[in-house]
Every structure is written in C-alpha cells, then in structure tokens.
Amino acid sequence: MSEEEIIILEEDDEEQEDVNPLETFIQEEDSEDKEEESPPLIEKIGKNRKKFALGVSLGALIIILSIVGLVWLIKETKEEITLAPIDTKKIAQELEEKTPTQSFAPSALETMLKKANLLYEQGNKLDALKIYENIAVFNEALSEYNIGVALMKEKNYKDALVSFKKAIENKENRTISSINAAVCALELGNMDLFKYYIDLSEAYLPLESNSPLYSYYVGLIHYYNDRYIEALAAFLHPTSEHYLDRQNYLSSKILSFLNSNHQAIDLLPNESINLLSLGLLNARTGELELAKTALKKAKEMGELKEKATIALSLVEAKKGNLQTTASLLKEGLKEYPDSFMENYSLKTTLKSSLFEINEAQKDFSDRDFFEKEKRYDLLFYFAPYQFFDAKQNIDTIRKGTLAVDLESPNDGLAILKRSTTLSKANISISEGIEKVLNHEVYKANQIFLKALKSHPKHSILHYNLGLTYAQLGNYTLANKHFTSSYRLNPKNYLAGVFALMSLDLISKPIDKFKEDLKETIDSDPTLGEDNLYKAFIHVIENNIVSAIRWTESEKEETPLNIMFSMIIAKLAHNQNAYLLNAKILQKTLPKDLVSNILAFHALYSENEIKAYAKAIQIDFRRLDLDKNAFYFGPKVAKEHYIKILQIGGLLHHERESLMKKVSLENKNLAQMMETLAYLNIYTHNFEEAYTIYNQLIDEHKIQDSRTLFLAAVASVGSNHPENAIALLELSKLTDENNLESRYALGLLYLEVDNYNGAAIQFQKIGDSGFESSYFDFEMLN
Prior knowledge:
elongated, mainly alpha, Serine Threonine Protein Phosphatase 5, Tetratricopeptide repeat, two-stranded antiparallel ribbon, 65% helix, 5 strands
C-alpha cells in the first residue's frame, strides 16, 4: 500500500476503501445516502493528516445537453499549475454583490433547456441562444469538474488538479473544486499548493450558505485545517437530512482521535465496511471479545482481509492467545509477503500501572495479592525449610564404629566417611537456614547449591535449594529441585506439592505428575482424608469446595497453615475467615513485612481506594517492621511492599531512604542494589535502573533469568530496545520457561519487523491466556 491514497465514492460505487486498522482515525465507509445534486466524498489517507474532497457525477446533465447538440470535446492537458494570489477583496466584493452563480441542479437546468427550445421553435432565436450560451459555459465547468473527479479515481492527480483549476477559473463549484484541488496537491506532496487551495475553499465557502450541505462543507474545511472540534460541531449539527451516515462516520473518526471511543462506537454506521473500525474501537475500550467477533467478520471480506488479519493477531495477543497470534502472523506473511504490516509501526511499551499512581490505584484489586502466581509465592514465602535427620546421622556413625571394632576396617571407614559427608551437608543446611532467617535468600541459595555438588542425592538439600529458587522467582530451577527431592524421598509430600505448583507456574502439563502424587499420598495410611497435601492439590485444581474441608479440621497454627487458610478463605469469598487468619498470622510473626502487609490489606481492602491510600500513609507507616525481606529477601516481599507504597504515594520517599542505606551497606550490597534497581523501575527512573542492572550483570555476575529480564524492562523504559532484545535473548536462554521474556521479545521483534522471530516466541507461549505484568504495545500509525 502506498503511503497516501485517494478513494472516490460515486453514486453507485461499491468499492471498499483500503482501511488501515492501526491509524489514529478510523477509515471511511461507502455511503449510498446521496442527494441528486450532492457531491460525493473523496478521502485522502496520509500518515500525518486525513483530508476529504467533494466531487459530483453529472452524467444525466450531459445527456440532456447532448439533446440540443452541445458536445464537449475532452482534451488531455499537461498544463502546469500556476498560483495567483488569493484576492480576498475581489472575493468579498463578489459575495457582497451576491453575483448569481450558475450552480444549477439538473432539474433547474432541464427547465432552462425546455424554455430555450420553446423560444427557438417560436422564432425567438436570439434569446434562446443566450440561454444556450449560459448552459454551454456551465456545462464546460461541470465537465472540467467531472474530468477532475474521473482523473482522481485513476490516481492521476496532476491532470486532475489542472481540471479543477479550470473549473475554479470558470467560477463554478469553486468551493468544492478548491477542496478537490487541495486533495490533489496533498497527494502530489505539494503542501504550499494544498494550503493555497484549502484557503481558497474557505474563502469561497459563503457562496454555499444556502446549500443544504453547508454544514457538511464547513465541517470538511475545518477538518482539513486540523480544527477537529469545530469540524465535529458542524458534523453533529447538520443543515439537512442528506449524508447523515457520512457525517456520523466522520464524527466517529474525530471522537476516536479524541479518545471518546464509546461515543465513536455509538456514531459509527452499522455497515459491513465498518467492521474493521468497529473491531478496533472495541479493542481500544478493552471489549476484546466484541473486537474479535467484528474482526473475524472483517477478515472474511476480501478488501479488508490483510488489515483485519493484523488487527486480529494483536487482539489475540492482548487476550493471551499467543499461539493464535503466531498462526495469524504466519498466515499474513504467507499471503501478503510484500506488504504485510509494511506501513505499520508497533512500539513496545511498559504498562502505565508500573509507575503511575492513579493507574496503580485504578488497577488495584484482590488479584494483586491472590492471583495464581501471588498465591503460590505467598505459600513459598511462609513454607518451612527442612532440617537434616540428626538421629539418622548418629546411627550412621555408630554403625561405622561398630564395623571397625569387628575388624572390618574398609567397610567401617567407608561408612564413617559417608557420615562425615552427611555431616558437612547438614552443616551447610544449618548455615543456609541461618541466612534464611535473616531473609538473605540469595546467600542461602548459594550455600545449598555448593553443598549439593558434593552430595547430589540429598533430598532435603534439593528441597531447600528449590525453596530458595521459588522465593527468588526462578520457578524452572525450583521445579527441578523440588521434583528431585520428591523422587529421592516420596514421603517428602511438601516437596511433591511444591513441584506441582512450580510446574503449573511454568505452564507445563501437570496431570501426570499430579496423579502420581495423589496416588502416593492416598497410599500413606498415616495421613487423614482431609490432609494438608490433598488440600494443596485441590487448590491447584481450583476445587475450593474440597479444600474448605481441610480448614475445618484441627491443625497446628504454623505460618504455612495460616497462610493457606487465608488463601482458601479469600478464594471462597469468606472475608471474616480471611480477616481472622490475617490477624493470627500477624500475631504469630509481629514484625514480618509480608504478614503485616496481608493483615493491613485484610483490614482495609474493603475501603474505597483513596481511603485505602490514606490508611497506608498514616496507619501502615506506624508499624514496626523488619524490612530485610524487602532489602534482600524473597521477590513476593518486594512486590507487595512496592505495591503498598505505590498506592499510598510513598515510593519516592522509600527510594531516597534505600539509596542512603545502599551507600552504607557492605554485607548484602549486590542484593540491595538489585532492590534499588527494581524500585527505580516503579519510580520511572529507568536510566538509573538500567545502569545498576548492567553493573550487577557485568561486575557482580548476577545473571539469572529474572535479573536479565528486569534489566530488559529498564532498557525499554530508557529507550534502549536493541539492548533489551539482547538481554531478553539471554534471559530466554537462561530459562526457556520465562514467559515474560518470550512475550517481551516477541513484541520487540515485531517492532523491528522480525515477524517470523515474533511468531516463534509467541508460539512457545501458546494460547494460555498469558498476561504480562510489565509489557504492552501501541501502534504509531
């Protein structure tokens, strides 16, 4: 598709216009609501402005004139356009004198023609010839005008401009001819000429003051001059019943530009040519199902198929159906290899709710705390780390000593050596848990990882390592180690349940593992029917009714049990149980950051959002909290604390405090720098975040998938898309199940016209209903 196009709408013209689904304005539809003397609409579609012109088909008039032998000889001309200055005094004088114009309707012209014929037959040839002369002059102008319209339809804008210039010089249809001439100039890229003719049309506009289409002409001229509010006023107050659908449509276009999308939808005429526009407007308002329905129908229309395919692919992306998006992209690339998306520019953006307080407050709801990933994160946060079996280790030492006493030194030494190895692993477990108690999860992770290398079949080491990965947000490695722990010790049911949760988080099939775990749990006679592990599986299956039975049984009030009870209460919409358990959790862990956030949320979440924000500023800030979980602890603590601060408008205050603390920190410097970088994203300090993440990656060698991804987030925010692509590629390679990285990479590939690369990334995500927490996109044209 060329950069600029003209569509001419004649009375019986059924051509569909080539609609750009991603433009600011909606493209125009055909209209059959024609007045006999009304001119058709010509639309100019360009990158920076959309212009219209008027043309009229006067075939009937030419037939009438041919009766009396008046023939117009059409000659092709290559005349160059020369500009005469607009003589406003002369135009004003003409208007003041109200010089009668010969802008006759065909019916009036027919009456004049009958009168001339009658005079001629009666012998009054002189008066008859005067009338014929006037008709001939009028016909010449109209013919020039019609020639111009025909040439415009053939996209011969240069010669069309010549014809319109002649029509203007003949003082006929000057307003409409000037508008058409302006369109031709715009198509030819001559902005000076465009400005001349659009000004000329406005100067001649008073000549149309008695026309029933006066408001229509006024609206078009305002629209050409980018005076959209004035144009809208004219279109919404028509001076006749003619072209109402057209004027409603133009009003819809302007309203869409002004982001009054619901009003634009209401005014959009209900015609098949508008299906694409309807789909796009519904997409804007978030009515994705309505958008999808309209775009599917538009896709079936040949003229709209390419544009509808693009639009539908992006709507499917918004719905999280990325496999369908990939299929539509491939379909479009195959069917339109030379033009698909050629004139469209996609811009990858960050969600405004990341750093806009009003947006964050608007989007705030229970899902911020209890959507699937957050539920699992909270369970990981309050889950217990497991200790070694001290009795088993002592028994091993005794067995080794006995073997030596019985003069079996080789066997005894091997047993004792193994017990020494076990002791080292147990020491590492103790050291790691000590770090965990201070929320130093990354350091605990490194301790467990190192210990596992010397004892790779230690079930408890695998479980603890998996738990650190889960708390850090690396669900792929968490799943690997939880699964290993469960396989090494099938009685470690918590490892099995957490393996199932982490498998669910990376969008992998869970049925086979789930059935194996269920069978193992059911075969254990020491477990009751409504045990904790089966209740976990019920929640994973979204079977809340069955999970409720566990809450009714007697249980120890451990942090994990209390947190799980809160989740079930919230999913069951039992606010009283939720609030009760939140208070118990806060009492159990009075200084814990997350337990206090949850207790605060339970107490105030029913309030209106502004009152909630005020309570954060006053009541929440009074709490005595251990902020280590925020400074260098699990990801869920950072996320929830930042969300609370954001809603309360306290992010910048916390950032200043954290910057001072980082400047004094030595023990956990890298982790605190990482938290500062993360906080900088939410305070819109993208360049600072980008710099810190680069330092963490290059100097501190923190190169896990999540850190690389967040560095890419900062890169996009600071307008470094090329660096973001490189970081996301690394993030994806580090963890192929990082769907956020794949989604962002797909969008950035679309931005740089790598459509096949984008399709590959989207295909890997699949139709899972994925919704990014960080990235969005917009169309620039």
